[in-house]
Amino acid sequence: MGELDGYTIQVMREAAQNQAEYYENMNRPSYIFKPSLTVDGNQWCALFGENLQDGVAGFGDTPEDAYRDFDNNWRNSKVKYLRVSATDLTESPSVAAAETGIGGSYE
Known about the structure:
By secondary structure, this protein is of the alpha+beta class. It is built from 5 helices and 3 strands, in the order H-H-E-E-E-H-H-H. Mean pLDDT is about 80; it is low at about 100-105.
């Protein structure tokens, strides 16, 4: 088996880094729950739920900033987390939303 040249090693490192970033993004609450994205005044708003009082929201100067704020707020919220697969969410996102407690009472 031959030695790898510097270029090949660099390409392999970049591929591994890209793969890690891809999987990190797939685990973000904003990717999994797909909050609505709207403009609210002079900022973007990512909202999951019926309204700001009952749901989880994030704000930012760009859509990405709003999603990152949403991710932080999701992780720090009192929402009951539902352990489901991505397939479950794509098949029945309304059921998943209902079971997380968004828009309802937290028991």
